[in-house]
Each structure stands twice: as structure tokens, then as C-alpha cells.
């Protein structure tokens, strides 16, 4: 399989971007392209997510792990109870049951690759109590208010 990358559009040949229905409590201005999927020798799904300026990815946790590489732009990520600036090339591992969310800075989209197991559990979203507990850390509250 060969999929040519279109640098102007940030698209790969034959891959249709999936736009998430707007649900601002969960995500905003995000598209997903599934670049590779396999259930045989390499049982993973490899995706490219793009968060438009000022948007964010889903705020969630789950049993399955993520391995993320920032491909484009910059933003901030919530990883557990830590907030990190993320830039092109950064590599992020998200262990099981770790709260996570990616937010794009203003100006440029934030694009990242994300590797997951082909067989994985569904995401769980934070309850009001979870959010309250997370907000106790001022930098986390500041991130959530961005
Ligand atoms: Mn996730």
C-alpha cells in the first residue's frame, strides 16, 4: 500500500477525513483520518487527528494506551494532572486510565498521529466530580478554561 501525502491539504491519498459532530463539551473542530488498520500481524489502528485553531480533542480516559506524535503546529495537552506544551515532533505516551485532551493554540492547526490497539475499550468521559477534582490544580483549571 502506498498513500501519497498532500502537504498542502494534510491529507493522504484514498483516506476520507471523518469530521466529528460538534459537541463542545467533548471535542471541537477535530477531524480524524485512519491511515492504517490491521487485525492480523500488526493489530493496531494508526490515525491522524487534526484540531483546528482554538479547538480541542475529546477529554477522556480508557483502559487502552495511546502513543502520539505531534506532526503539525503546537498546542497544550492535559496528561493525567499535568499540562504540557506540545510541538511538532514531540512524542507522548498515554498510559491506561490517564485523563487526556489536546488543545490547539490559536493560529495554526494542531495535527498528531495516534497509535491504538485494534481491539480497544470505549472512552469514558469525566463526570462533574472528576472535573472538580482535576480543577484543584491551578494549571489544570487554566488548561480546561482555555
Ligand atoms: Mn483517548
General description of the model:
- The protein is mostly beta strands and 146 residues long.
- It has one domain: Jelly Rolls (Sandwich), CATH 2.60.120.
- It has two helices and eleven strands.
- It has helices spanning 128-134, 138-144; strands spanning 5-6, 11-12, 18-19, 28-37, 44-56, 66-72, 74-79, 82-87, 91-94, 100-104, 110-117.
- The strands form three sheets. It has a six-stranded antiparallel sheet with strand order 3-4-5-11-6-9, with no helix packed on it.
- It starts with a strand and ends with a helix.
- The model has no long low-confidence stretch (mean pLDDT 95).
- The structure holds manganese (II) ion.
- Manganese (II) ion is lined by residues 60, 62, 66, 100, 123.
Structure in a nutshell:
By secondary structure, the chain is mainly beta.
Which helices and strands occur, and which strands form pairs?
Blueprint: E1 5-6, E2 11-12, E3 18-19, E4 28-37, E5 44-56, E6 66-72, E7 74-79, E8 82-87, E9 91-94, E10 100-104, E11 110-117, H1 128-134, H2 138-144
Antiparallel strand pairs: 1-2, 3-4, 4-5, 5-11, 6-9, 6-11, 7-8, 7-10
The chain binds manganese (II) ion (MN).
Characteristics:
Jelly Rolls; 146 residues; mainly beta; 3-stranded antiparallel sheet; 11 strands; binds manganese (II) ion; 2 helices; 6-stranded antiparallel sheet; single chain; globular
Amino acid at each position: 500500500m502506498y498513500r501519497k501525502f498532500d502537504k498542502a491539504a494534510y491529507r493522504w491519498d484514498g483516506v476520507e477525513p471523518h469530521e466529528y459532530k460538534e459537541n463542545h463539551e467533548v471535542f471541537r473542530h477535530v477531524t480524524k483520518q485512519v491511515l492504517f488498520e490491521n487485525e492480523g500481524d500488526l493489530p493496531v489502528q494508526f490515525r491522524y487527528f487534526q484540531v483546528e485553531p482554538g479547538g480541542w480533542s475529546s477529554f477522556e480516559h480508557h483502559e487502552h494506551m495511546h502513543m502520539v506524535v505531534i506532526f503539525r503546529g503546537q498546542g497544550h495537552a492535559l496528561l493525567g494532572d499535568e499540562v504540557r506544551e506540545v510541538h511538532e515532533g514531540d512524542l507522548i505516551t498515554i498510559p491506561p486510565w490517564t485523563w487526556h485532551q489536546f488543545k490547539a493554540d490559536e493560529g495554526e492547526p494542531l495535527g498528531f498521529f495516534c497509535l491504538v490497539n485494534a481491539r480497544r475499550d470505549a472512552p469514558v468521559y469525566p463526570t462533574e466530580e472528576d472535573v472538580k477534582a482535576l480543577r484543584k490544580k491551578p494549571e489544570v483549571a487554566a488548561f480546561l478554561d482555555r
